What does this fold into?
Amino acid sequence: MEFALFCTKVNILILILALCSPCKFIQSPMDYGPSNLLETKSSASLDFGRIVFNSPSAVLRPQSPRDISLLLTFHSASSFSKVAVAARGAGHSIYGQAQAIDGIVIEMDSIPSDIYVHKKRDDESGVSYADVGGGVLWVELLEESLKLGLAPRSWTDYLYLSIGGTLSNGGISGQTFKYGPQISNVLQLDVVTGKGDLITCSPTSSSELFYAVLGGLGQFGIITRARILLQDAPQKVKWIRAFYDDFDTFTGDQELLVSMPELVDYVEGFIVPNEQSLLSTSVAFPAHLGFMPDFHHVSSAKVYYCIEFAVHDFQAEGTSAEQVSSSLVVEKISKQMSYMPSLVYSVEVSYFDFLNRVRMEEMNLRSRGLWEIPHPWLNMFVPKSGIKEFKDLLLENISPNDFEGPILIYPLLRDKWDANTSVALPDAPTGGDGVEQVVYIVGMLRSANPASCAAGCLDDILRRNRQIAEAASAGRIGGKQYLAHHPSLLHWRDHFGRHWNRFAARKNLFDPLGVLAPGQGIFPRVH
Ligand code: FAD
It folds into this structure.
């Protein structure tokens, strides 16, 4: 275990820990090296959002789950429980969720990456799965599992996120309508609770902890290992985009696609507020395609909508028969859709390139200095009944011509989410025809380039985001934030609604001193 100390506030706690554990203890900044120290300190107070910058007092780089358990056990047994502790996966939060002001940040990537892939034999019952450390990135798991022709079923759009980080939120992408979010595809977890207990849990063993941690915003324990369900990976993917100038037709076709899980493997979509946004979208088509639909000749509508869907292609190398059959599937699906004639594009790519598509956009933005800039994102779940009103609310609150970044919008199906997990989905409307299956996820993934949007402008975007989120949470729309950021306990109570009592009881059970994940700003510390 390595520790980098930045002030004396937590030194005594660390000293006790170091005396009792066979770990490497770095007592002074000189041991660590001044540049390393600075780097570590700044990375622990930094995230993808670049809006909140809270410095910790110390950074722990554990070598094993036991190091984390030791820290939290000593911590809760001693009088040092005022020090908060945050796990940091890949630090791709937006509003400081993995930071710990004057506390201890645990950098999960320091635990040696350990991925074990089990491929089910034909004569064996059960399933294929991977055992993987909580700090491992999804892209690392993909690379490893593909070696055996396998892959996880459910994804996020971007793969350089940690297993523990996305399982603490949900993990959503275009496969969610079919397989549920990533948290619906986990068989077992190893968790260190806020009290320091290292527990293996599953739907049948310590199930309360298992469900609490999934979507639990890091509040109940630190995920040190996850068993992830795997399936056969296709070799290729047919990836299609179709455009619309009418919102109802667009959502009608999206809902048609998610009603055909036997044919369709992935469904997303986005709003095109201006033509430039096609280039800056995080769901970029491969650059060589020179993808740039020309709307002017087709329609005078100002805002367009794009459906993106994909069909897996299990072609064996060189065989054209399978290729034809996946083309037939796409043809069969397309015939039932109502996109603008001639505005449909398709490409065939390897499964890895398809899943890793946002990396291309990252590289592009990095090369232009546009990746490490503020990202005032807003993500919301919106019930089907409120989606049109929400879209109008969004468009009223942005200037289409200078909006930078994609606006994703696509349907999910409520019954693919396990209600025992901690995620807060919008309540299903009562009355009418009962449970409304379709819930949309809408992501306003905005960038604020300091060259054109300075501090006042960023504040203005954040203020507008809050207004949109408040208006959408109340009344007819009935939305809820995903990757939520709320200013007060009252807002969090509202966020969890009828599940608040369960969430608070789980906190009391697994992290009674309120040590974990202070950056979420949910629970005040217990002193
Ligand atoms: P961090 O930011 O490091 O941590 C997030 C929270 O989880 C913190 O509270 C932290 O304390 C806690 N935490 C971290 N590791 C652990 C652990 N091992 N155990 C317990 N708690 C832990 N999300 C989607 O669902 N779908 C997407 O398509 C998607 N695309 C994205 C694209 C980009 C470019 C970015 C920046 C984010 C995207 N996200 C997406 C959001 C992402 O899933 C979350 O921000 C997630 O938390 C990032 O994982 P991380 O490892 O960076 O987490």
